[in-house]
Write a structure and sequence with these properties.
- By secondary structure, the protein is α+β, with helices and mostly antiparallel strands.
- Helix content is 37%, strand content 25%.
- It has nine helices and ten strands.
- Strands 1, 2, 3, 4, 5 and 6 form a six-stranded antiparallel β-sheet that branches.
- A hairpin with a 2-residue loop joins strand 1 and strand 2 (69-75).
- Helix 6 (191-206) packs antiparallel against helix 8.
Length: 292
């Protein structure tokens, strides 16, 4: 089955990429920064126009096909390819069945990255118009609140996935530590289900990159009101958790039927100190306590 799938990919790539390469500049190479910016621009297009935006992204003559790369879009929940201007025959196909040039199921890895909130993956793929596989890296970005995951890749043999993730993590984000304050009052009949959902998510939460800590408190002033306080290395880490698929499903269940009301605040940490470590404590506080 894998051999058959690989031969089909080879035939499609050989035919389609030759035609597609005629519309691309072989001399111009897209940078990781360009990929990140185009992916986020495409995400904004989809958020504002929906299916109309998909039609734009499917056009190989649009701005989202540029230099030696292009934007493609998938629906992770359905494992569907929604848009691919380079390989239009793949539209409607199952992304999880896609193999790279070495036979690896990169489509599964792509979906897993999207479910974890996005990031970069690497695999082996030929450049348009060729049949020799080389290292390709793709940036994966699930559009918050939508079924769209926007992707684009480049041929890069120097930057590690770790460096690429750090680069994309700084895109429009605060580099400092952030706290997410989630105040919620579940309905009486929804309390047990909410606590069960939270317990099921906790193991996934602890495995997220950039996660620091989480605590849950019960209000003394309002019966039934709870507060969840999570701390993250930066806003990008908190965003990835927000976009994690299982977390998204729990959010929808809470919003639709479990919660009476809720309030979310995402705040930057200005300073932090303890009774022992007073490095960031205000000087007037140290003076009052007669601490050096």
């Amino acid at each position: 089955m894998k051999i058959r799938a690989f031969l089909l990919i080879l035939a499609c790539v050989t035919y389609t990429s030759k035609a597609f390469s005629q519309n691309m500049s072989k001399s111009e190479i897209a940078s990781p920064q360009e990929v990140i910016e185009k992916v986020h621009k495409a995400a904004e297009l989809l958020k504002s126009t929906g299916k109309e935006g998909l039609e734009i992204l499917r056009d190989p003559k649009s701005e989202f096909t540029w230099k030696d790369t292009y934007i493609f879009v998938i629906d992770v929940e359905e494992s569907l390819v929604l848009s691919n201007p380079a390989f239009p025959e793949r539209q409607g196909g199952n992304i999880r069945e896609h193999l790279d040039w070495n036979g690896k199921h990169y489509g599964i890895e792509l979906c897993e990255a999207a479910q974890q909130g996005g990031g970069w993956i690497e695999f082996i793929w030929p450049k348009p118009g060729t049949t020799a596989g080389i290292r390709k890296v793709s940036y994966i970005y699930p559009v918050p609140g939508y079924r769209y995951t926007v992707c684009a890749g480049i041929y890069n043999e120097t930057m590690t996935v770790e460096k690429l993730n750090k680069l994309s993590g700084s895109y429009g984000k605060s580099s400092g530590k952030v706290a997410v304050i989630f105040e919620v009052k579940p309905k009486k009949e929804g309390m047990d289900e909410y606590l069960s959902l939270a317990a099921n998510l906790k193991p996934m939460l602890s495995q997220m990159d950039g996660f620091i800590s989480i605590e849950r408190f019960s209000s003394l002033n309002e019966e039934g009101k709870l507060l969840s306080l999570s701390v993250w290395e930066n806003e990008e880490a908190a965003t990835k958790w927000r976009n994690q698929v299982a977390h998204r499903e729990s959010q929808k269940a809470g919003h639709d039927s479990l919660f009476e009301k809720y309030h979310i605040s995402v705040v930057s940490v200005i300073r932090e100190y303890t009774d022992r470590d007073r490095t960031q404590a205000p000087q007037d506080s140290n003076d009052y306590l007669k601490l050096k």
